[in-house]
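[09:14] KT: can someone run the structure on this one? pasting the chain below
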Amino acid sequence: MSHEFETGFFVQTPPWHQLGTLLTDAPQTAIEAITTAGLNWFVTKESLEAVVPVDGSYRAVGVHDQYAIIRRRIEHGITRLDALGVVGRQYHPVQNHDAFAFFDRVIQSGMVQYNTAGSLRGGRIIWALARLNGTLRIAGDDVVDKYLLLTNSHDGSRPVTIAFTPIRVVCANTLAMALASATRRLSVRHTACAAARIRDVGEYLAGVNASFDHSAEAYRFLAQRSIHAAELATYLRSLFPDPEEGALRNRSRANREKITARFERGFGTDLTGASWWRAYNAVVEFIDHDRNQSNADARVHSAWLGQGMQLKQQALQTALQLAA
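[09:31] RB: done, structure tokens below
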């Protein structure tokens, strides 16, 4: 089975695919994290050419305002080159060392510690996840941990993103690490000043705990609001409506049935009553654990950066609206 996962490390908790390096202790510096995660390489922006057959031979023709992002890495003393994507003239690569640079300051402050980092899709996407000190108690023993997530692309598909995301302890595994409910997010486009902006995040970090407190208030509100069977059905139908086509209608119905099963028997159902908080978490668990069963890597990518992430944001906002 092929994996979108390329390299990475995981602290104490084994990854979903049993690949990568499992660490007992978290890295203490950005260079240690980058090296352990297999990210100690760099990319360059190179002029793009098309090789065209002409009169029995080949001729290179330059492509105006289009450039290739080339990864350069050393393996056994040999430089390997990989083409990661095609970008425009204004795009400036952000090296892994620059993307991770601000972590040194927050690690030294004792504010966070690395949890996992690595590369997906052949180096096209890199990530780092760090756990912040302290937890958010939502209801009784139902607790949420606080994480800082950094993602970057080397194929021109997305900006550098630094986001703070809460992860529910009872279902916290590598599949639940997502931008689902990001309380505070900073996006940095790949421009000439990108590296400097990433390093200068002190003001951004200052508001972190206040943002988490705001999220905790929303979660506690949902935990205090009871939900009935009819309301749950309405909630799920708003997220997974019935389209006209029969096959897609069956899929939507199956999705709603799986989420209902999660609501009845999912993670942490013994910690909370029949509340909107429980309904929202049933949707999150379905997206993180049940979708794309045949391809765990596609499920992870969707939950972090794709349709799954967007659906979880919609699920939270819809729950808050319907519970009000």
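[09:33] KT: thanks! The first strand starts at residue 5 and ends at 11.
[09:34] RB: yep, looked fine to me
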